[in-house]
Design goal:
Elements: E1 2-8, H1 12-20, E2 27-32, H2 37-46, E3 50-53, H3 60-71, E4 76-79, E5 84-86, H4 90-100, E6 106-111, E7 120-121, E8 137-140, E9 142-143, E10 147-150, H5 169-179, E11 184-194, H6 205-228, H7 230-253, H8 257-274
Parallel strand pairs: 1-2, 1-4, 2-3, 6-11
Antiparallel strand pairs: 4-10, 5-11, 6-10, 7-9, 8-11
Helix pairs in contact: 6-7, 6-8, 7-8
């Protein structure tokens, strides 16, 4: 048995679509960061296997995932996202896979929408898993988009880094596991399809761009500093800062003020991380939820 954990933020339509892709005997935990109590009431009434947990504030991805992992009663926890379609009996195949194969810390389905990006990376050679060809298992160094987590092989210190609000948390999670020689697999015969940038309400698109630009740059510097040291991180960030400043000046010259604001937010996030400020930026904070 496994539990599905799905962090969400104003993604009620997509969450409902994902719930339909999961059999009713599988428990689903939704960590709803938008504080949408109406959504919680409705979907729990619609589906007996769904429980919605609403934190006191928007916790970001890492903290939401950790809540789900901790709250799940099963040994196996499948963490996924509202904009990742669970295709071709994905959950059924995961159930089948773990009946015979549990020698992993993380196992991810193969995402078929490679036009956006490949959801796994391999940095070194690994032995072929000849005994489990039905699921086409391949040991890798990094997976993204969805994660089947074997809690029996996960320690408290291995959980997601809660200092990261958004972005690079998957790379950080995988790197810490691989540094301990823990096993990560992709199952190429168990599949998902990433819709891409579709997890939030379209009315929030500009807020989403602000949020993405700030946090991506904050998290990139934080990740580099955490794993490769201050000197490496600052060299990378200074180079990026120069490029962003030049881009900002160019946008101002051509009166592209909306685009220049997005670049300015990138700089703001990058410099906040360089000055050791927390991942504090929340462009959604003063939204009127009644208009969504």
């Amino acid at each position: 048995m496994l539990t599905v954990v799905m962090p969400s933020f104003y993604s009620s339509k997509l969450v409902r679509e994902r719930v339909k892709e999961i059999d009713k005997n599988t428990q689903i935990l939704i960590i709803e960061n938008s504080q949408d109590t109406i959504f919680k009431k409705n979907i729990e009434n619609e589906s007996n296997n769904v429980k919605v947990i609403i934190p006191e504030k928007n916790l970001g991805w890492g903290k939401a995932v950790n809540i789900g992992i901790t709250e799940a009663k099963t040994e196996m926890v499948f963490v996924t996202q509202p904009d990742v379609m669970l295709i071709e009996d994905c959950i059924k195949k995961l159930h089948e896979c773990i009946k015979t194969f549990k020698d992993f810390t993380v196992l991810s389905p193969y995402d078929t929408n490679s036009k956006i990006f490949k959801n796994y990376e391999i940095y070194k050679d690994y032995p072929t898993q000849k005994n489990y060809n039905k699921f086409l298992l391949e040991e890798v160094d990094y997976v993204d988009l969805s994660w089947l987590i074997n809690k029996s092989k996960l320690e408290q210190k291995d959980l997601w880094d809660e200092q990261i609000f958004l972005y690079f948390e998957a790379k950080d999670f995988a790197k810490r596991l691989k540094d301990q020689n823990k096993k990560i697999f992709v199952a190429k015969n168990i599949k998902t399809y990433h819709l891409g940038s579709a997890s939030h309400d379209k009315k929030l698109e500009f807020y989403s761009q602000l949020n993405r630009n700030w946090h991506y740059n904050w998290s990139r510097h934080y990740y580099n500093k955490k794993h490769f040291g201050n000197i490496y991180a600052f060299r990378k960030s200074i180079s990026l800062m120069i490029k962003l400043i030049l881009k900002f000046v160019k946008k101002i010259i051509f009166f592209k003020f909306k685009e220049s604001k997005l670049i300015l937010i990138e700089l703001y996030g990058l410099m906040s991380s360089m000055f050791n400020l927390s991942s504090f930026y929340r462009p959604y904070k003063n939204l009127d939820r009644n208009n969504l």
